[in-house]
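INPUT
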Amino acid sequence: MKKYLTYVSLAVILVAGLMAAARMAAMPRTYEGQNATVPVAQLQQNPESYDDSTADGAAAVIVQQNLAKSHEVNDVTSIVFDFRGYDTMGEAFILITAVAGAAVILFTRRKEGEDGKE
Amino acid sequence: MEKNNRQIKSVILSSGGDSLLPFVLVYMSYIILHGHLSPGGGFQGGVLFVAAVLLIYFGHGYQVATRAVSFNLLHGGEGAASTIYVLLAMMGVAVGAQFCQNVLFTHGAIGELYSAGTIFWMNVTVGVKVLTGIGSITLLMLSLVADRQGGDAK
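OUTPUT
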């Protein structure tokens, strides 16, 4: 009974994940740099064409587009938690693994030490 | 053994640590909460919690540190925070956008403390997660040190 419940829930999760993946693949990309007011990709290939009359040229482009997309003042946090939020999730799970590893090693050593005393 | 106890429980260390502790905690919460407005963020602010645990340990010893900061609470908080992070990331899928997409970003004014939608909440959850994870690692290491020194741990 419990086994079948597990199979059913795993199948539901798999189907939901596949549906979400199919829907997400059909959607437009979050950011591709094409609809921007300043074409960054062309600018990178031909830097002479850029209007550098304002002081912070490329930085101003990045800040303006980021403000329009996420209403966020700090660009680094916006990249870490929004555009690359998946990456941050992986980092957070690495931390869980590190804590589990440290707990296993240290608890085992503590137990060994107690046994040695007795 | 007596020498160790005297070193750990000196009056200067305990009073100095006690007076520094609230400032460390306020600074930690400031860095976590303002991660989307200033340099810093969840990871950097959460690591500061180690300073708080170490201040309690240096001032009052291992037993008081474990009483002040519960190991089981830290473990539970870490799991809960990572679950909330994944749920926040799934919110985009539920609304009909990409995974991890910022769907609340119009809430709040630009530059205010509560702005930028899910970035703020993800920042806070990652801060809690790093705080609890690093804190539990530190408590584990301190338990080993206290066992080696003897007496103080029991």
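end of record. Chain A touches chain B at residues 20, 23-24, 27, 30, 67, 69-74, 76-78, 80-82, 85-86, 88-89, 91-93, 95-96, 98-99, 102-103, 106-107, 109-110, 113-114 (CB under 8 Å).
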